[in-house]
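Email to the structure team, subject: Helix-turn-helix domain-containing protein model.

Hi all, the expression group asked for a predicted structure before they design truncation constructs. Nothing fancy, just the tokens so they can compare against earlier work. One-line instruction: predict Helix-turn-helix domain-containing protein, return tokens.
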Amino acid sequence: MKLHFLHKNLKSNFEFSHHKERQFLRLWHYHPEIELVYIKQGKGTLFAGDFIGTFEEGNLFLIGKNIPHMFQSSSKNFSEAYVLHLNQSFFEAIESNKEEFQYIRLIHNLSERGATFHSFKKNKIENLLFQLRELPVPLQAINILQVFYSLSVHSNNTYLGSVNWLNHHQVSDQRLSEVMEFLMLNFKEDISLEKIAGIAGMNKTAFCRFFKQHTGKSFITYLNELRINYSCKLLKEVHSNYSISKSCFASGFNSLSYYNRIFKKTIGLTPSEYLKRSI
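Reply from the structure team: attached below.
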């Protein structure tokens, strides 16, 4: 299975779309456009770069150019989203007016690692995006600027991808992309070094050297961090003592003691401490 490149072929510098379906596109893919996604309805798991987390109604995500991502719906009801794609040229044209549009540069910079927004004016943003369906292109552009300005002054944000991932990410390396896609889709399963080296078409020694060179981490460290990130997502969803052991095995670990040790090393807290802070 390959990482999919989706070229949007936008008719202008931006394009709005409204999605309402049983499942969002379950495809590990990337594209050169920057994407703003508002979740109107539904819930599930967002995979973006090396980020794994929950999406649900009212969430707003900014996904940068060429960041591999996938929204995996888990709701039994319909999933609905407002999606805005923007070409790089949209930002470049506006940023040439440096002083008046500092907030556009802020949003553009946030997109490099991807971001999720908190404490934004939900009703205002939702209405501005919804109006894009009927407005002519010049007025759509004005709404988009209002969205970005509001987010720059009335919200907090959390980055999705890590700095390490951004520094090492190369969509042009097809072999690495296939390895990463396999890990993102199968990290909950038992993955041997021999298996993953075979995906890359290498022997185990060559693969370990290749993976460390391209990610800055050993294979087992990277895999453990993926699993811990997913475990954190599960712990936030279920607040009970049982959820610690459940999240351990559901994330791909087969030893609770090893899981506890890796969790503390990665997060800086024990699972119990993390759970208490999440409540």
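DSSP finds twelve helices and eleven strands in the chain. The longest strand covers residues 14-21. Ping us if the truncation boundaries need rechecking.
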